[in-house]
UniProtKB/TrEMBL annotation:
Membrane topology: Single-pass membrane protein
Keyword annotations of the record: Membrane, Transmembrane, Transmembrane helix
One Pfam family of this chain: LemA
UniProt subcellular location: Membrane
Ranges in a coiled coil: none
TM stretches of this protein: 7-26
Family the entry assigns: Belongs to the LemA family.
Origin: domain of life: Bacteria
Chief subcellular location: membrane
Presence of keyword Transmembrane: yes
Protein name as annotated: LemA family protein
Length: 189
């Protein structure tokens, strides 16, 4: 066998040895990125479910508390921002704003005992509570998937493949600043 043929075989073997882990890393990154995309979609689905429930809840409360117009406006504005969010960070900010407005709405309800005993309101409240729990789980699932993906993107030698093929870190779903503070509700005005 000629020397150049042996050299060619050695080069081909080396290329195969390099290509197999690269292909494996690439496929793994694609899988992890899809997991992140599915988790983000699940957040969207649960936020949409909550957005669909809110008008019914607001209309039920409006019948009892028509003088609480500011809270209804806040909820409508926050829903609009959530619907117009273009990325996970904007979505997290709008979601936090909507959650705050809903918290204030539920505090308003405390002043209307007849409303709290209304079956329609109770049913909507239970559905909303379940949806809030689903949203929390969807956020956790997204952050878990994003963390797994981000760790892989940053890890050597996958980092090389990630940079070659344009895989970039995914942002974590974070609450906005001030989201940990309890909203202030003033009924004296």
């Amino acid at each position: 066998m000629k020397t150049w043929v042996k050299s060619l075989i050695v080069v081909i073997i080396i290329l195969i040895i390099i290509a197999i882990p690269m292909i494996s890393s690439y496929n793994n990154l694609v899988t992890l990125e899809q997991d992140v995309n599915v988790a983000e979609s699940n957040i969207d689905t649960q936020l949409q479910r909550r957005s669909d429930l809110i008008p019914n809840l607001v209309n039920t409360v409006k019948g009892y508390a028509s003088q609480e117009k500011d809270i209804f406006t806040e909820i409508a504005d926050a829903r609009s921002k959530l619907a117009g969010a273009n990325n996970i960070t904007e979505q997290a900010n709008a979601d936090s704003e909507l959650s705050g407005a809903l918290s204030r709405l539920l505090l308003v309800v405390e002043n209307y005992p007849d409303l709290k005993s209304n079956q329609n309101f109770q049913d909507l409240s239970i559905q909303l509570e379940g949806t809030e729990n689903r949203i929390a789980i969807a956020r956790q699932d997204y952050n878990t998937a994003a963390t797994t993906y981000n760790t892989k993107v940053k890890s050597f030698p996958t980092k090389i493949v990630a940079s070659l093929f344009g895989f970039q870190e995914k942002p974590l779903y974070k609450a906005t600043e001030g989201a940990q503070q309890v909203p202030e509700v003033n009924f004296s005005s």
